[in-house]
Amino acid sequence: MWERVMSMNFTLTLFRNDVIDVIKMSESTLERAKEAKKLIKEMESSAIKNCAGTHRERRRYLKNVLKEACLIFRDQPGLLAPRALNVFQMLATARDEVLWVRVSHDNFSLIRFKNESPYDVT
């Protein structure tokens, strides 16, 4: 679980505005073990390399899915009620991505990307 969280995010949202910095917390928790420090550094470099691209692709996918859903529901409004749960799931996922960009923007401004422009994050 730690590897997935650390390789995809710099922060983890606990509840609403309560977030924790995953990498700093894991460093402070596992500071005694040398192997853990090595693992933390690997996960941090993996997060720096992969998370911007992963979240960018996720936002592109969500944009296309939401566009298609809007077109379908505009054409066939009767489908909205049976698919309300799916609509709420799409909107929640889109909200999570917007919050990820907002929370992670500070971390990306500190890191200089070699291959990516600053506009790839947003």
Tally of helical segments: 4
How would you characterize the largest beta sheet? Answer: 2 strands, antiparallel
Order of helices and strands: HEEHHH
Q: Which secondary-structure class do the elements indicate?
A: mainly alpha
Number of domains: 1
Report on the architecture of this protein:
The protein is mainly alpha-helical and 122 residues long. It has one domain (2-120). It contains four helices and two strands; from the N terminus they run H-E-E-H-H-H. The chain has a two-stranded antiparallel sheet with strand order 1-2. Helix 1 (2-8) packs across helix 3 (34-75) and helix 3 packs across helix 4. The longest helix is centred in the middle third of the chain and has 42 residues, at 34-75. The two termini are 26 Å apart. The mean pLDDT is 76.
What's the structural blueprint in terms of helices and strands?
Layout: H1 2-8, E1 11-15, E2 18-21, H2 22-29, H3 34-75, H4 84-110
Antiparallel strand pairs: 1-2
